[in-house]
Request: fold
Amino acid sequence: MKNTKAKAIFFFLLIWLANGAFGQSYRTFMDEWKQIVQTARFSFGPFRIFPYLNFKNLGFDNNIFFEDHPVPDFSGTISPEVRVYWPLRESLLLSFRENPEYVFYLNQKQQRGFTNSYSFGLKYLLFHRIVFSADYLYGEHLQRVSSELGRPTTDAQREYSFGLFYETARKTSIGITASVNRLSFKDIQTPDEAISLSQTLNRTERNANFEFYYQLFRDGYFFVKAGCTEFGFEQTSLERDSYSYQATGGLRFPMIGPLQGTCSFGYVKIIPRGADKTGYSGFVSDAGIDARIRRLGIHLGYKRGFNFSYFEKAFIFVDNRLSGGISVYLTDFLRINYSYELGYFNYPEALNVPSAEGKAVEVGRNEKQGLHSGSLVLRVYKTIGLGVTFISSRWTANVPGVDRNRSSIGAYLTYQF
Reply:
């Protein structure tokens, strides 16, 4: 009896803590100040505290490495988080975030891992109009680092970022941002080969942007960003050093009637410094729209951009992703979801791959990923729900030895019921 009562208390404590988290989006200094002061779950002296607890992928996966020789296992990720803010005199805002994670595998013990992420932030309001910000982030995760690589590994980043903005009385903001981000990846040993991610992907990214935000409605903005990025790789012999120019614009908005989401479209041009590398220039997008009409929810999304490839000869690949989903609220406390994502990515450079006869031939590699997802979600407290999801994915390519399948079933916690 005592054990059952203790479990119930722990469960409801988890839900209570999770309700303190809130989504991050662009806000003026005073909007962010007011939200933190008014919505903090806990206060300790001058500090405002937002605790958070999550778990994901808690279940069975029939192909945990997403390879053509499947390895099944039970797995799960536990991810507690706390955000602490110290608001001072309506002109200075200090912040701290701590987010440890533990990834568990029942049989593949070598895949178990503990990672930690944390950050420090400062925002200072000067003359009621000028906002200076500085942030430091250390992030480490055990995850699949890109759509190109199915096997999980550990990646880490150290980022320093700065911003200087001028805010008008109508909450229009104009400013500049700059950042330095050091990215590192752990090498992978598979049954067939060693994958040296550190050699091909470890790099430092230096970025500078001009940014403009115009408030169209409450907490919603039209925005424009334009800037440049320099990519410096640790392994200089591969001649991957490059730089890019990018410009994007769009709308970021909260729930307006039935709509919520972000629409961002733009142009990017990446220029490799190595003479034997092929760059990329063209359209990019990061758009996702959610609509809610009574008991029906609809999601549409489209993403397009480039990523650095872990293949030594490939340099980059272009990733296109279309997604769509539907949610039906059967009752006030029960929801079913279905979604499908279709991804295409291709390589601007031809790669040497083995033919059916075993000879090496050059081809323009193209790959396709399809992912079906269905879930049942039970609302347990306000907008918080417990869900069980089934995922089935298929990966195909125009080169041999790449086609593979993966299915999983697991439980998760959601804060958007």
Q: What stands out?
A: The domain at 2-414 is CATH 2.40.160 (Porin). The longest helix spans residues 2-18.
